[in-house]
UniProtKB/TrEMBL annotation:
Name assigned to this protein: tRNA-dihydrouridine synthase
Recorded family membership: Belongs to the dus family.
Enzyme class: oxidoreductase
Keywords: Flavoprotein, FMN, NADP, Nucleotide-binding, Oxidoreductase, RNA-binding, tRNA processing, tRNA-binding
Binding site for FMN: 17-19, 71, 140, 170, 225-226
Pfam families membership: Dus
Catalytic activity: a 5,6-dihydrouridine in tRNA + NADP(+) = a uridine in tRNA + NADPH + H(+); a 5,6-dihydrouridine in tRNA + NAD(+) = a uridine in tRNA + NADH + H(+)
NADP among keywords: yes
The DUS-like FMN-binding domain, residue ranges: 15-309
PROSITE patterns assigned to the protein according to its UniProt record, in alphabetical order: UPF0034
Gene3D superfamilies: Aldolase class I, Putative flavin oxidoreducatase, domain 2
PANTHER family: TRNA-DIHYDROURIDINE(47) SYNTHASE [NAD(P)(+)]-LIKE (PTHR45846:SF1)
Amino acid sequence: MVRVGNVIIEGDVALSPMAGISDSPYRQITKRFGSAFSYTEFVSTEQLKLGNAKSLDMFRFVEMERPIVFQIFGSDLDTVVNASEIAAEQKPDIIDLNMGCSVSKVSHNGSGAGLLKNIRLAGKMIEGIRNRTNLPVTAKIRLGWDANSLNYLETLKVLEDSGVSAISVHGRTKAMAYTGIADWNAIGEIKSRANVPIYGNGDVQSYKEALEKKKTYGVDLVLIGRKAIGNPWVFGKTPKQFFPWYQIKDVILEHLDLMLNFYPTSDDYALILFRKHFIKYIENIGFPEDTKRLLLSVASVNEFKDTLEFVKMDSTILETSELNNENINCETFVSLV
Ligand SMILES: Cc1cc2nc3c(=O)[nH]c(=O)nc-3n(C[C@H](O)[C@H](O)[C@H](O)COP(=O)(O)O)c2cc1C
């Protein structure tokens, strides 16, 4: 159990925020599979200020997702604090400040990981959001801008002094983006100095590994990102490869239906959005290539569902090789305006 301000979080592992992935439909699926809480995709405070409907919509959620954390990003103090008030109207449990996004358009503008270069401003944002919303405020950080500016212990101190209620740490620098390997020793060092809960994050492949990381590095919770795409089983004890195809198929259909309900359009645009999840659901399970190609090209939901129904797979051919995550990053599924 983790206490974040007045919010109690039960569980050891949660879905890491991912733009283009951690929307309400997938948060509902992962919560049901054991994710300890729900973290929205990052939402621009500039866009919230402008009343952008698409941005506001990214905060839509259902009650079963609670505890729900709204993640925001921005570089201007007033804009961030004012936007947090707009966000708070939708009654999240916690607001999180993104201090980790490495994408140039975000970080070179002073927001996301750009705040690692201006941690006092980040501290003022946290204080401002707290005062304005009365909600617990958390932050998601990296270890520093680059290897020559590893300021994570200073960041911890400044954020704690600003009243932060918990910190998620992705064990890489902004310069590393998604290359190399996450430095869990640094995450452990932060935990050993912290007075607030610390969530460790980076390269975790399985539930078992998450529990090992928790034990070894003492973190309060572990976030899983890339390995959770198309793989909600990562939040439970039994890995995906031990489930028969018909059960994987049922989850694929459940997820698709949630997306169709959440993004209703006459041309079933949700199916196109769903493709990135679908590719990951069927990766490394021996799914027939020709059927995969067909399913990724159909535009009709009925055709998609009918075709999927006819796929026959012997569960003994399921492969157990690890997903290759190297080429996925926060720019993969979003075009930032
Ligand atoms: C497609 C994608 C989108 C992401 N979007 C966000 C985001 O909106 N907010 C955020 O804090 N981190 C974001 N991240 C970073 C992840 O939350 C996580 O910190 C990172 O992927 C490392 O964890 P992993 O090794 O388990 O994937 C994103 C990562 C990916 C791959």
